[in-house]
Design a protein that fits this description.
Helix content: 40-55%
Distance between the termini: 77 Å
Shape: elongated
Number of helices: 25
Strand content: 15-25%
Length: 678
């Protein structure tokens, strides 16, 4: 088989090595436009797990690489004048130039033909012509991906923050995050060693800070100016050491995704097909693991097109899962300013769990002091007097004037059993059973605020019969837990949207909900009339209607809106803007649910719409509930401990197992209700 790689970075070189190891008969050519010693950047980071994959693929190159590694286990966080050290992580770093030299030597040893200083700009180039497989390993700015864009359908999301990749002579001995709040703005540093004398020093900031600091001169390409300004900003942290430049220009990170990875005999690999933000250090890891997966497919499948299709099918889910984690991480760093008000221990915990893939159990295993510090912080805030703090999900919650025994809620679950809008025994048993099962808050399904327009079987709170029926349910639930009402506004069939009518109906329904004794109330913004105004961006009308409802609700009881996370950054930005407007109209709680379509299309996640809830809580100061999380206690604990939400709301897990909360409490040896100071 004749294989040509356009691009001689780690992706192309490692694939060449692996193909030659699979059979010396393969003819492998790597074409690189730069000289052998040309490289940009400083260090490359690998985790212990990645090293295991490399060892299995080629023990010889693995041994050569690991002999040149700098190793460390700790993460050090500099924030708010304090330095916190988190242990037990396990990283290795190597100078990028050294990595390339080792891969170049290994490839040449195995008979890979490498052409340096040989730019290729056409697929009919003489070195490419006749290849059975053409590998596009030409990086983020891949011309092959661009030329065949109609087939690969790339999506390049250029992020707003600015960053510059520098080196330093500081001999770091940990993965070091520095958050330097200055009059110019907040600077974030991602620093890590790659040798005994050198470290990578990536500086990141918002576009506003970048311009305010004067780093935008010459479009951010003046490396000497960058060194001078940042040496002054980080004088104390550098302690006399120097910053080093190597094409250290200011950039915006591009997140690359592609709808297809292959076309005929052409396949994308590494940064040409996908990127992951540098905050999780996975670019080279992804590229080399792509090489392993592509080698496996080319060896196993009977023809090239089948092999390339198999490579994409197998590899895509792994990459998309890591990209989802990288997206959560980059958004955390884009909005780090919102977390500065957190205590240093909780700030560090939020940083450690930013990818939304690290559970509380994982933090406890890797860094018991950090997990204990956050547990003690949450317990102390809640007035818990137990000598050993309970897990975060069993710490009482305070929502305005409402105190909850724990932080688990029942998410709205439509029973469709309200005849003429009147709830009966089905609702009494269902809601009461979950209250008896230990949840802190039971939330109703959507209750219609008006007399017409709601789906059949929807409960109402319009007539006296409907109101009295709800009073029976609420009184029963109050024997075990607190209960909230979710109200929706619906239009009669064929009726035009009428703000005055909706406002009147909602205000009256809210008064009835208060009379019944509901402890909290949310307005459904994901369906019905309120959703129309929200989707149309008519926040003035929506705000007026919401304000009328708030005026009818007792002070001190939580009053919120149920918002839907559509899974994109743009949609989350719009949701935050809408919530900010409604906060000014009396909203103090955001109940955040995932859009079903977005959840189905996205990579599997255990933590639901945590990113939106996090922003609403830490940017706007709203109490937040995350709906749609998996019933994994360690994940629920992490969401709460990091300050991403006040409550987690379970739906199907509590429908299937009403006693889930009691059983979860028994497993960790606590009561569902923690001891609270009087």
């Amino acid at each position: 088989m004749k294989i040509v790689s356009i691009g001689g970075g780690p992706a192309g070189l490692y694939l060449g090595i692996l193909m030659k190891l699979s059979s010396h008969k393969h003819q492998v050519t790597v074409i690189e436009r730069n000289r052998p010693d040309d490289t940009f950047g400083f260090g490359v980071v690998f985790s212990d797990a990645t090293l295991g994959h490399l060892a299995a693929a080629d023990p010889v190159s693995h041994a050569a690489i690991t002999q040149a590694f700098a190793r460390w286990d700790d993460i050090e966080v500099h924030v708010g004048g304090e330095v916190l050290r988190s242990t037990g992580h396990g990283f290795c770093g190597i100078e990028r130039r050294k990595l390339l030299q080792l891969l170049q030597a290994r490839a040449a040893e195995l008979g890979v033909e490498i052409h340096y200083e040989r730019p290729v700009t056409r697929l009919d180039d003489e070195l490419v012509r006749g290849a059975d497989v053409v590998v596009a390993a030409d990086g983020i700015a891949s011309w092959i991906r661009t030329e065949l864009a109609e087939h690969f359908r790339p999506d390049v999301d250029v992020r707003p923050n600015r960053f510059a990749w520098l080196g330093t002579t500081v001999p770091y001995r940990a993965f070091t995050f520095i958050f330097k709040d200055t009059p110019l703005g907040l600077f974030r540093v991602h620093a890590y060693p790659y040798s005994d004398t050198g470290s990578t020093f990536i500086v990141e900031c918002t576009d506003e800070t970048y311009r305010r600091a004067g780093l935008d001169v010459a479009g951010g390409t003046d490396e000497d100016r960058t060194i001078a300004i940042l040496s002054d900003v980080f004088a104390a942290e550098l302690g006399g050491h120097k910053l080093i430049k190597n094409r250290s220009i200011w950039r915006n990170f591009p997140t690359v995704r592609t709808a297809r990875w292959c076309h005929k005999n052409i396949v994308l690999i590494g940064d040409a097909v996908h990127t992951a933000h540098f905050s999780i250090g996975s670019g080279t890891k992804l590229a080399m693991e792509d090489g392993i997966a592509l080698r496996d497919a080319l060896v196993a499948e009977p023809d090239v097109e089948s092999a390339l299709a198999a490579y994409e099918i197998r590899r895509r889910p792994e990459v998309e899962a890591l990209q989802a984690a990288a997206q959560a991480s980059l958004e955390w760093f884009e909005g780090t300013e919102r977390y500065l008000k957190l205590p240093p221990a909780q700030f560090t915990y939020s940083l450690m769990t930013r990818s939304l893939r690290v559970s509380h159990a994982s933090v406890q295993r890797r860094d018991p002091p950090l997990a204990a510090a956050v547990e003690e912080l949450l317990a102390r805030r809640a007035g818990v007097t137990a000598s050993s703090p309970p897990p975060p999900m069993f710490v009482p919650a305070q929502l305005g004037g409402l105190r909850l025994a724990n932080r688990i809620a029942l998410a709205p679950w439509a029973l469709g059993a309200a005849e003429h809008g009147v709830v009966g025994d089905a609702h009494l048993v269902f809601l009461g059973g979950r209250a008896s099962g230990g949840v802190g808050l039971v939330m109703t399904e959507t209750i219609a605020a008006g007399p017409a327009g709601a789906p059949a079987g929807t409960p109402g709170i319009v007539t006296d019969d409907q109101t009295v029926a709800w009073r029976r349910v609420v009184d029963f639930v109050h024997g075990q837990a607190r209960i909230g009402a979710q109200l929706g506004a619906f239009a009669p069939a064929g009726a035009a949207t009428d703000a005055a009518r909706v406002g009147d109906e909602l205000a009256e329904a809210v008064r009835r909900a208060a009379f019944v004794g509901f402890d909290a109330l949310t307005l459904q913004l994901g369906a019905g009339e309120l959703a129309r105004w929200l989707d149309a961006g008519d926040l003035a009308v929506l705000g007026d209607v919401v304000a009328r409802a708030r005026d009818a609700w007792p002070a001190g009881r939580p009053f919120g809106v149920r918002v839907v996370d559509h899974g994109t950054v743009a949609a989350r930005d719009a949701a935050v803007a809408a919530a900010a407007a409604l906060r000014g109209r009396g909203v103090d709680l955001a109940w955040v649910a995932a859009c079903r379509e977005a959840a189905a299309a996205a990579p599997a996640t255990r933590v639901g719409p945590a990113q939106l809830a996090d922003r609403l809580r830490n940017e706007l100061g709203l109490a937040t509930v995350i709906e749609g999380v998996a019933a994994v206690p360690a994940d629920l604990d992490a969401l709460i401990a990091a300050g991403r939400c006040d409550l987690v709301a379970l739906d199907r897990p509590l429908v299937v197992d009403p006693g889930f909360v009691h059983r979860a409490a028994e497993l960790v040896g606590v009561a569902s209700t923690a001891q609270v100071a009087s």
